[in-house]
From TrEMBL, chains A, B:
Pfam families: Pyridoxal_deC. Its cofactor is pyridoxal 5'-phosphate. Gene3D superfamilies: Aspartate Aminotransferase, domain 1, Type I PLP-dependent aspartate aminotransferase-like (Major domain). It comes from Branchiostoma floridae. The lineage of its organism: Eukaryota, Metazoa, Chordata, Cephalochordata, Leptocardii. GO terms for cellular component: cytoplasm. This is Tryptophan decarboxylase-like. Belongs to the group II decarboxylase family. The modification N6-(pyridoxal phosphate)lysine is found at K320. The keyword Lyase applies.
Length: 503, 503
């Protein structure tokens, strides 16, 4: 019987080996190598190059194509393979024709960094191909060190001392969510008190704060819109008044968000004055520098960043002012252990703790963030910073600042536009004056429609104080003086047409 | 005077134009084009190819190199540029030699998908280079549609009906965080009650749940470890007992997490039985299928997924069972409006609402997630699914299942190993038997050290019930029968040596 069982097992083993040999052959398609790999690389590189070479011929505004032919093979996810060249070409064609063109130098909407320099795009590619895991020291100590060096570089830029800690997230929203959680936990707030907690913003603070509060369980918390001055900056005196009132009412003020470069107008809150208030009342000061942060590289901007070094946390987005591809945000918390206390469960690979392969003196990134696995995002900062050097980023940001001022001056010189704010960073807000009897909001709304209708430029509205303004944000690394000139001419021209037809 | 001012302004304008022309020249380095671009592409592709071609010569375990020479130029972020070829080569050399080699076919640690097929890596590269923004329909309607199609494909795989909604996050942790927030909000829990809320897991549930609870403000909530049976599966009867007791004690049970493929042992909780309990008590049922989810593609696995269609939410990680590069997780919520209610502030580009370029009937991804900007992660799923077709993924996953069984059988046939569990998915847990009088835990801990010391294979411990086991997780798409044979031989050999020296 034993013998017979042995034979049976042996036959089963043989059968299993045969099946596995067969399966290996059938799955070999997944292991792209040799000529096939070369061909894929070539096709991809050529398509990307063609996109880049033809960029100026493309529209930059949102295009809602309805004429694209649908094909079952391409639309449905199906059992069988489709030719690589066809897939990548279709993929590129769809993406390029389907919306806003973030990479375009006359895309002045939102906050547009140009879609990433080529080395930044390679920084998304290389770690993906190398399978780099940067969530733990055990995973890749060098990748973790590179990220820590990048975080330190950002911390140094804002004058944070040693002892800070941070993480590289997918962007400002997650970074904000995380810092809200850290601020919440560092104050040892009990959930039962969340409804009494007060967060202070201005109406120009990014709504990532409100969204983040929901995420971290503080939907019931009170979000105050602190009054702003004429330059749309949060006023420290009004802030302090609110805090005092809230304290008297038995509420729990705990967090102030100051913005260095609001999304809508680029206004910079007076961080130093706000820091004084936070000091007096022992509130967590968070600085949202998602948009404006890297302008700190420019010497003449230093005074705008005065007081940022006094904050408890900063968010700055490399996919904005550092021209990385989308999806790279940096959070730095001054007292690093607070970030760790909030995020760490000390369970990351803890079965290896004490083992020689585990470097116990280092905190792993996954203990400083709510993410465990994530792409090695630092690569998208590291490669361009090394390849280009910091200097050219500084110069490019100086150029953007100057372009905004140049654009502002040109509009002003025409005498045909209202310019409610001097640009502090690279956002210019304006609206056309109107013929007597014409509604200024309607006129400018129509002007916006006319301006973006053919996709030559893309700009957005900026509505505040019930007034409709237009907004140009200059941040794309490809934007130069000729693009501003083109934008200016188009605005003057369309405004002229509209003026005539409105009289 | 007016004339003189005009002259002065004109002179200033000229000066500004000259400065801007100069700045354009100085920042042109950022716009990589033509031959320089070709050269960067070539260098990068060659390095990645060299890595892939030499993969089998590399170690797969964690290497803590201390001998690497530091260089100021490469380590510090400096003002000046460094040659591209040098930067990329250094970058690759550091990353490849610095930790675990996730792409290696004999890396059996953690849950290793092989680091991404080549088209998946290109899927990280292409949208970065095309500057695709997939957070809003306005940004790129086609990218958003592709992601929705992918989410629907996942939803279909698990039998979810229409009405679902989801998002593609950076991985399981963020997806879990999000579903915890949705479950919390859908129950309209007040923060004051968070300390009475109860979440039910087993001790084998991933700690992303505990970490996520902290993130969403529910640090005070009660996390129950529901007892498991001999196969380490959560037991529905014990779960119901706990729920009843908690209800009687005035607590608020609200969420059960069932795992389809635990990280440690690959055990699958009895989802159908658990769903019965959740139905009776009106609890949110979340299924963590981060590891095991895509095994649902295999016909013979269908019964393991029975009941998953009854859950309220599912997380599954394409960077595991779908062999994408790291950083791609899918969350699907059955009642999609609950996800939207939790995440949406309806402020995404709301200044364009009602405008013809805004497609109002579509919900934007940024209203279904806590992220606003993020990379177009869907590309890493889309390209490989199209290029390879679904069929070969199915086959590859069948191969992994069979490899695990093959490995299990081989260990069993030696008579030298204890195998406490039949592998349900692709994790095999085992330990060596020991000579009389030798501590079995110590022996196996030593065996692990011996096994991973030279980096030929990488496996992890699996400690449960105070017993030290070894664990092999088969999931890398490059792993075939010869790699399992190699692993098996090494284990038998090292175990033999250790046995001799222990007697």
């Amino acid at each position: 019987m034993a013998q017979s069982n042995g034979n049976k097992e042996s036959a089963e083993d043989d059968n299993l080996c045969q099946m596995l040999a067969d399966l290996k052959v059938r799955t070999s398609a997944l292991e792209v190598q040799g000529a096939e790999r070369d061909s894929m690389t070539k096709t991809t590189a050529e398509l990307l190059k063609a996109y880049d070479d033809n960029l100026l011929k493309l529209t930059c505004g949102p295009v809602m194509r309805t004429d694209r032919e649908s094909s079952e093979v391409m639309d449905e996810i199906s059992e069988n393979p489709v030719d690589f060249d066809l897939v990548v070409k279709d993929f590129k064609d769809r993406l390029v024709s389907a919306g806003v063109n973030n990479g375009h130098p006359t895309f002045f909407g939102f906050i547009n960094a140009g879609g990433g320099t080529y080395p930044a795009s390679l920084g998304a590619f290389v770690p993906a191909a190398l399978a780099t895991y940067s969530g733990a020291h055990l995973g890749n100590a060098e990748a973790v060190q590179m990220e820590n060096r990048l975080i330190k570089w950002v911390a140094d830029l804002f004058g944070y001392p040693a002892g800070h800690a941070g993480n590289i997230s997918s962007g400002g929203s997650l970074a904000t969510l995380t810092t809200l959680a850290v601020a919440r936990d560092s104050r040892e707030l009990k959930a039962a008190d969340f409804h009494r907690c007060v967060v202070y913003c201005s109406e120009f603070t990014h709504y990532a704060v409100q969204k983040g509060l929901r995420a971290v369980g503080m939907r019931e918390a009170i979000l105050r819109n602190t009054p702003v001055d004429k330059a749309l900056k949060m006023t420290a005196a009004a802030l302090e008044r609110q805090i005092n009132e809230d304290k008297e009412a038995g509420l729990l003020p705990f967090l102030v968000v100051a913005t260095v470069g609001t999304t809508l107008t680029g206004s910079v809150d007076p961080v130093n004055d706000i820091a004084d208030v936070c000091d007096r009342h022992q509130l967590w000061l968070h600085v949202d520098a998602a948009y404006g942060g890297f302008f700190a590289l420019c010497d003449e901007m230093k005074q705008l960043f005065s007081g940022v070094e006094r904050s408890d946390s900063i968010v700055v987005n490399p996919h904005k002012g550092l021209f990385t591809s989308g999806g790279v945000g940096v959070l730095v918390v001054k007292e690093g252990e607070k970030l760790q206390q909030c995020c760490s469960l000390e369970q990351t690979f803890n079965f290896f703790k004490g083992h020689s392969i585990f470097s116990a003196e280092n905190v792993s990134p996954s203990e400083l963030s709510f993410e465990l696995t994530r792409p090695f995002r630092g690569a998208q900062m590291w490669l361009p910073l090394k390849v280009f050097g910091v200097g050219v980023f500084r110069t490019a940001l100086e150029e953007k600042l100057l372009l905004a001022r140049y654009f502002h001056r040109k509009l002003k010189e025409t005498g045909e536009f209202e310019l409610p704010l001097e640009p502090e960073l690279s956002v210019v807000v304006f609206r056309a004056t109107v013929p007597p009897g014409v509604d200024i909001n309607n006129f400018n709304q129509q002007l916006l429609d006319d301006l973006i209708s053919d996709g030559k430029i893309f700009i957005t509205p900026a509505v505040f104080s019930d007034q409709y303004y237009l907004r140009v944000c200059v941040l794309c690394f490809k934007t130069h003086i000729e693009h501003i000139d083109m934008c200016f001419s188009l605005i003057v021209e369309k405004r002229g047409h509209l003026w005539k037809s409105s009289r």
